[in-house]
Amino acid sequence: MKFMVVDDSMVIREKVENVLKGEEFEIVGTAQNGVEAVEQFRLLKPTVMTLDITMPLMDGIETIKEIMAIDSNVRILVVSALADKSTLIQAMHLGAYGFLCKPFRDIELIEAIEELIEDIV
Amino acid sequence: MKEKSLEVFVDGLTNYFDKTTSSLAKVSTPFLIQDINKYLQDYTGIIGISGNHKGSVFFTAPKIMVVKLISEIGVMTTKEEKLMDLVGEISNTIAGNARRVFGDQFMLSTPVVLKGKGEQLHVSNISSIYVIPVVWQNMSAHLIINLDTV
């Protein structure tokens, strides 16, 4: 299953990649802002992605809008420190499938992704 | 900013170490300071706040602690670029978690990271500056809160 990781923190991108090593995913791309994410999404067509909200150039909320307009079947797990309900509701309303609040334990990331894809594996 | 509002930052700092490390951190009671520069350490992540508050949230730590923290989250490196990235991410995470209390109009900038004490930092002298100390594995870092309600 093709997977993409989007976060402006290189350490978080690396952490997510490390946690997913050995799982059934092929990390096809990473991006550090929404603009890069949309460009890479068009080229790489991942099935699943993690997406941060607070990023430069284009934030995660705008990125969800753009990506859902390209392919609404993608499964997006928002991974963000923004812990207010309205951000969660807005992201889910736009088409995100799940929300994981930073900071997170490895097992919490794995469980959130398993939940995200349980009906497509 | 009211002292009661500092609880969300104490909780956020405690939660960060709890979720990302394998040993407990001791977060102490916040206290007021006059000069932020005395508390800056090797790396400082800064989040600018706007919206229903104005000011900044800082996380500052010594290099030895950041190297240890980055290994705890599974990234084995001493590259400065990544150490600075982590400090920015910690400040962003703790400030972002505060939206649980302050709501979605507590607006965050993307992180700016300073290395060393360098230039003297000048912060708002209207609002109080609070330091929240944290000790983890005998190393000490600080969360610094300089916020006013709008």
Written overview of the protein:
With 121 residues, chain A is of the alpha/beta class. Chain A has one domain (2-106): Rossmann fold (3-Layer(aba) Sandwich). Chain A is built from five helices and five strands. Chain A has helices at residues 10-20, 34-44, 60-70, 85-94, 106-117; strands at 2-6, 26-31, 48-51, 75-80, 98-101. In chain A, strands 2-1-3-4-5 form a five-stranded parallel sheet, sandwiched between helices. In chain A, helix 3 (60-70) runs parallel beside helix 4. Chain A is globular and about 30 Å long. The termini of chain A are close together. The model of chain A has no long low-confidence stretch (mean pLDDT 94). Chain B has a single domain, classed as 3-Layer(aba) Sandwich (Chemotaxis protein chec). In chain B, strands 1, 2, 3, 4, 5, 6, 7 and 8 form an eight-stranded antiparallel sheet that branches. In chain B, helix 1 (7-20) crosses helix 3 (80-97) and helix 2 (63-72) crosses helix 3. Chain B is globular. Chain B starts with 6 loop residues before the first helix and ends with a strand. In chain B, 42% of the residues are buried. The model of chain B has no long low-confidence stretch (mean pLDDT 92). The chains are: A alpha/beta (121), B alpha+beta (150). At the A-B interface, helix 1 of A face helix 1, helix 3 and helix 4 of B.
